[in-house]
Amino acid sequence: MSVAERLKRLGAWAERDVRDVILPFWTSDFIVDPENGGFYGRVTLDMKIDNTEPRGLTLTGRMLYAFSTAYRVFGDELYREKAAYTFRYLMDHFYDKEQGGAYITLSPQGEVLDDSKPSYCEAFLVLGCAAYGWAASDQEALKVARETFEILESKMKFAPGCYYSNMSRDWKPVEGANLGNRKTPAFPKGSIMFPHHLCQAYVQLYLATGDERVKEALRQMAQLVSDTLYDPQLRNLKTIVDKDGARVGTHQSFGHDCEISYLILRVAELVGEEALTQRLRSQMTDVLRNVLENDFDPYHSLYNGCDLETGVREPSHVWWAQAEAVTAMLCGFELTGDQAFLTACERQADYIEKYFVNREHGDWYSNILVDEAGWHVVDGMHGFDKLNGGKCPFHNSQMCFEVMERTARLLKKEEQA
After folding, report:
1. Cβ neighbours of 93 (radius 10 Å)
2. Distance CA 346, CA 326 (A)
3. Which of the residues 127, 135, 168, 180 has an alpha carbon 20 to 30 A from that of 70?
4. Residue stretches of the chain with pLDDT short of 70
5. Residue 362: CB atoms within 10 Å
6. How many CB atoms sit inside 10 A of residue 309's CB?
7. What is the rounded distance in angstroms from the CA atom of residue 364 to the CA atom of residue 342?
8. Rounded to whole angstroms, how far apart are CA atoms 369 and 317?
9. In sequence order, what DSSP letters do the residues of 302-366 get, joined into one string?
10. Which residues of 256-291 are buried (b: 16+ CB within 10 A; e: fewer)?
11. Which of 244, 144, 113, 230 is nearest to 191 (CA)?
12. 399 near 323, Cβ under 8 Å?
């Protein structure tokens, strides 16, 4: 099979996956709460609704991104309707009309349960509103995204590319980390987690508005990755560092190596500084080649991560890291022309299709283990649920949109060659 045929197959798979597998579950009325508005906070693997589960900003913003981008890419009215519904719920219930930003956790009835404002969660307010504003030309959404950007830059940023992990409702720094869920890890005092979701949000906002201030914030993030987060000895990225830039902890997330690599290359492309772009291309090629050579299991699935001291890898595989591996390996092929990256991308996509797709109820399973005994749905990050505060349509739909765009671009190059 020629490279062009392989790219066409991959692009067609991505479109089928997002349209026929992922989005039908997330656009169904089954997950809509007709009494309180919005969406249920939890749906179990066997499709039982838990309407006692709180509603989260992270999930709501991610759903808004997925519906909005689907509408921008495909133009289907269903996606526009779902995006509009989600945006209205976000504005009417989560948005803090007095202090700006958004509350991160609500009861099903709309009562504020947590009014703190962590950078991780606030990123999804910007991401969702920017994506919706871009797709639907909605000026209210763009206004909210811009105003939130201004607050984050003036209140949350404390150094170029660096943001406080957690803040109070009135935008004062709060000690500790907060990812908007009950399993938030305890980061050491003064440590920084690279704000990759905020970076994704700013990419959407820049594409929607062309605002030079957003471009400058993105440039600073790209500079931080190149100067501080890239580890040339271990050929990976430090996702959490102390105030001096030293790595915090011994856990390495391969999913984040994948996700940040292709993201920051997109940022460099948008920023347009040649020296920074070339440096990042070299560094991220090194990271992606390390992933290619060392971080896939014998069944061609990306390991979640490892302990850097012991080298022990996690046996199960989480849905979001699988999605990020597909995009990252395709990015590696686009960067280098090395077909080993394309093969890894195809094999990971085939693994997802074979093991992660939930053929009974749609979308993907959360965690899978394949071993000598066969195929198993297992517990892990985000549990078993089909829908909860972490299990959402963000990473896998984004992967499909990325693969469709990248394969189309690569095919155009093939035709011109």
Report:
1. 20
2. 8
3. 180
4. 181-186
5. 16
6. 8
7. 23
8. 6
9. B--EEETTT-PBPSSEEHHHHHHHHHHHHHHHHHH--HHHHHHHHHHHHHIIIIIB-TTTSSB-S
10. bbbbbbbbbbbbbebbeeeebbebbeebbbbbbbbb
11. 244
12. yes
| Nearest 10 degrees: Cα torsion 111, 62, 122, 270 | -160
CB 333 within 8 A of CB 327: no
What CA–CA distance (Å, rounded) separates 205 from 214? 7
Task: List, in order, residues 6 or more apart from 315 with CB less than 8 Å away.
Answer: 369, 371
Asked if 84 and 68 touch (Cβ cutoff 8 Å), the reply is no
Instruction: Give the H/E segment covering residue 415.
Output: helix 394-416
139 and 209 Cβ atoms separated by less than 8 Å: no
The pLDDT value recorded for residue 185 is: 61
Residues 6 or more apart whose Cβ sits within 8 Å of residue 126: 145, 148, 149, 152, 198, 201, 202, 204, 205
Number of Cβ within 10 Å of residue 293's Cβ equals: 11
Q: What gap in Å lies between CA 43 and CA 389, rounded to an integer?
A: 10
Unique residue bearing structure tokens 């990971």: 348
* Predicted local distance difference test score (pLDDT) of residue 182: 52
Sort strands 192-193 and 240-241 into parallel, antiparallel or unpaired: antiparallel
Note if the pTM is more than 0.90.
yes
Write the DSSP assignment of 170-191 as a string of letters: TS-B-SS---SSTT---PPTT-
Rounded Cα distance, 43 and 59, in Å: 13
**Assigned token pair, 398:** 């984004």
Half-sphere exposure of 214 toward its Cβ, with a 13 Å CA cutoff? 25
**Residue 170, SS3?**
coil
Check residue 214 and give its pLDDT. 98
Express each pLDDT in 30-64 by its tens digit: 999 999 999 999 999 999 999 999 999 999 999 99
pLDDT tens, position by position, 290-305? 999 999 999 999 999 9
Q: Which helix (H) or strand (E) holds 220?
A: helix 212-224
H or E, element range at 106: strand 105-106
Asked if residues 178 and 184 have their Cβ atoms less than 8 Å apart, the reply is yes
